[in-house]
Amino acid sequence: MNKVKFIKVIIVTITLYFLSTLYIVPASAITLKSLKNPADLFKKKKDSGGEKVDLKNAKTALMALFYESSNNYLMAQELLLIAYGKNTEAAQVTEAIAYAKDSGVSDSKKLKNSMKVTTKASKSIETSMKDESFKLSVEGKANYAKSLPFLGRGLIGTMKLRPETQNMIANIQSNPMNAITQIGGLSRIIPNIPGYITTLTKTSKLVISGAKAKKIEGADNLDSEMDALAL
Questions:
Q1: How many angstroms separate the CA atoms of 165 and 163, rounded?
Q2: Position 200 pLDDT exceeds 80
């Protein structure tokens, strides 16, 4: 190839390169031009955050189930703490029961407080039950027996609460912004309910097995109910 031909090849190559660039740019320009407003780009991304489910009604149903279950658990825990001589902790549970019924307090505050107090009470009950040096008095056994019906109702409430909670969490995770808009702070607290349920279920099993070992009245019936619930 002589020098003249080589120069021609270079010129043709450069020309084709620039032509291909000019061909691509208009296509990009057309894509951007098709949007009437540049803000549409942000709007499209925002709208792709998942289906906007009505969480307000779902929240009302969920909170009703939670209060039903939690109130029974708290009453059972109050009696169990008294049975084991934990009067200070029992008084805190009593306050939590009243707090959960206060219409002037937001659902998010009540939910957070109930889970906090119940979890703390569960740990205290477990510690007391594992203390082999402690012997229940006659009065203590009576309070233990009184706690079992409330515990049973709490377990039944948990069975209803669990699927509703899982469904709500799925909706919150699919569209966090929509959840915050509709239910506010509850969107950050509700995802903690499964852990709360796990703690209560674990403590309940210990309470029931302890009741059977101590021959507490009503223990066998509750044990049968729990087997049926498959918790």
A1: 5
A2: yes
- Domain assignment present for residue 104? The answer is yes
Residue 108 phi, psi (nearest 5): -65, -40
Number of separate domains in the chain: 1
**Amino acid in the structure at residue 59:** K
State pTM to two decimals. 0.74
In a domain, 92, yes or no: yes
Residue 222 has a pLDDT of 80
193 neighbors 66 (Cβ within 8 angstroms): yes
Determine, yes or no, domain membership for 10: no
